[in-house]
Backbone:
């Protein structure tokens, strides 16, 4: 069984390895996963093309490097053994301006028993941590959303969620980088581009970053 | 220059893919039939990563402007140059006014059309591959349309050409898989079904993922798992039990259990399976990596 002290390394297909830090989502495990990802990237293991951290796991990809997986695992295990865990996590603070005029704002207020003003206040008062990116380029899963706003995803996803939509589901919130089908509840929109391929760092928010939503007047 | 005079329903520009950005949620994309793409680029004396047209679903036509050298392969199609049938895996010189017309797909899903020098579209995030969901790469991040003009690059690797004639991504043989990260969550019955049944690629299949028809695989997990990094070829089993194989434009992380992963050596053959095509999985052992 994996634990933070001796992470489990398993194959992920035949050209990637999956490092597992734990089985449940906790802040500590998330932090450890991001720390492992950072250290693995910095170690510059030959043949590694990508390192992806998620809630409890880290994927290390060797692409078409022709490094045998057994050899890659030895190199990775050696790097993991040398990682010292840390309690702190330095990261960028990103402020995302939001016009809170989302299509689901009223419904969220009604279902949570809060006023619309309170929905906006609760959502924008929290400082969120980016847990992982996926679903779409630049789509960062942010947590933890206040329990007062926790709602399951919409039973029927929308066919078209507007680009830049700020949305919530469960205990998470996120910004949709592109127009896409989506099942989260829409609270508002941001004019900021959360994914721009022309930027040096195309994704605005990376795992570990802290995010605050700032109320913007329309 | 290549003019798209009759755009097929689905064609994009792809190279070998966009690595280094998975942690930003960006899939690798790239040619789905990588084996054929590499063989064609070697045949033309191109760099391995030269971009080409990945042409799917149905026929269409291109017209050439200037001298060029092309080669095509992958799906079996009726292909003509100015009304004369031409063969795959062959170096074909073309010049101004020549028209290449693809009439129909006989077998397979993707036809790779490569040109010496590669298709010269802008490099976006280190790759010319198209990712439709984000609108990046290729021609303006989209499918080819009538009227598109594709520039031909000038960089070639060598004047000697080499073709690996053993590449046949339409060959029918089992698709080999290794045990996936959540393999132990699946019952023996689920494994027997996965390996013992003739499976079919669903009509609901595209570059983000191929659904597999006709089987339901039970697993012992109730709740969704925390999302984990994924890989192309991962065989995911959502709650309904019907498998979805992650493909080249698919999401980079996911919360569905993965029972198996398709071996990279067989990915091109799997990618060439068209809707309705039958296949079987075969389990192979992986050297211990733990």
Residues:
């Amino acid at each position: 069984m994996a634990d933070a002290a001796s992470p489990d390394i398993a194959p992920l297909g035949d050209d990637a390895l999956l490092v597992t830090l734990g089985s449940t989502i906790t802040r500590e495990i998330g932090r450890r996963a991001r720390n492992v990802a950072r250290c693995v990237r910095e170690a510059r293991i030959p043949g590694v093309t990508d390192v992806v951290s998620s809630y409890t796991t880290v994927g290390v990809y060797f692409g078409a490097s022709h490094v045998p997986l057994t050899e890659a695992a030895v190199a990775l295990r050696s790097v993991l053994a040398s990682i010292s865990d840390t309690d702190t996590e330095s990261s960028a603070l990103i402020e995302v301006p939001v016009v809170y005029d989302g299509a689901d704002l009223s419904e969220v207020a009604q279902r949570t028993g809060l006023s619309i003003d309170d929905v906006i206040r609760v959502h924008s008062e929290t400082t969120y941590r980016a847990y992982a990116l996926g679903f779409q380029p630049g789509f960062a899963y942010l947590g933890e959303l206040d329990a007062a706003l926790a709602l399951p995803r919409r039973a029927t996803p929308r066919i078209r969620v507007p680009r830049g939509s700020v949305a919530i589901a469960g205990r998470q919130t996120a910004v949709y980088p592109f127009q896409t089908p989506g099942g989260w509840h829409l609270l508002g929109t941001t004019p900021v581009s959360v994914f721009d391929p022309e930027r040096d760092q195309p994704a605005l928010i990376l795992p570990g970053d802290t995010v605050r939503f700032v109320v913007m007047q329309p | 220059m290549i003019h798209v005079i009759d755009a097929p329903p689905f064609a994009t520009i792809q190279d070998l893919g966009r690595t280094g950005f998975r942690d930003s949620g960006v899939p690798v994309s790239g040619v789905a039939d990588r084996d054929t793409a590499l063989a064609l680029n070697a045949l033309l004396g191109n760099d391995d990563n030269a971009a080409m047209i990945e042409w799917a679903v149905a026929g269409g036509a291109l017209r050439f402007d200037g001298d060029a050298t092309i080669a095509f392969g992958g799906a079996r199609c009726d292909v003509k140059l100015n009304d004369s049938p031409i063969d795959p895996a062959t170096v074909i010189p073309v010049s101004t006014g020549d028209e290449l017309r693809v009439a129909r797909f006989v077998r397979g899903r993707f036809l790779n059309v490569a040109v010496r020098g590669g298709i010269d579209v802008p490099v976006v995030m280190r790759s010319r591959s198209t990712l439709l969901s984000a609108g990046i790469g290729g021609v303006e991040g989209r499918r080819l349309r009538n009227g598109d003009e594709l520039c031909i690059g000038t960089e070639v690797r060598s004047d000697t050409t080499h073709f690996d004639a053993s590449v046949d991504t339409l060959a029918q043989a089992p698709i080999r898989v290794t045990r996936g990260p959540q393999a132990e969550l699946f019952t023996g019955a689920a494994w027997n079904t996965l390996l013992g049944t003739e499976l079919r690629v669903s009509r609901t299949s595209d570059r983000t993922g191929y659904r597999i028809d006709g089987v339901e695989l039970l697993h012992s997990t109730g709740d969704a798992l925390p999302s984990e990094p994924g890989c192309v070829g991962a065989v995911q089993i959502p709650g309904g039990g019907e498998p979805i194989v992650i493909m080249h434009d698919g999401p980079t992380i996911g919360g569905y259990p993965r029972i198996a992963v398709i071996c990279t050596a067989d990915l091109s053959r799997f990618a060439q399976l068209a809707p309705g095509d039958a296949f079987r999985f075969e389990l192979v052992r992986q050297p211990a990596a733990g």
About this structure: Chain B has a mean pLDDT of 94.
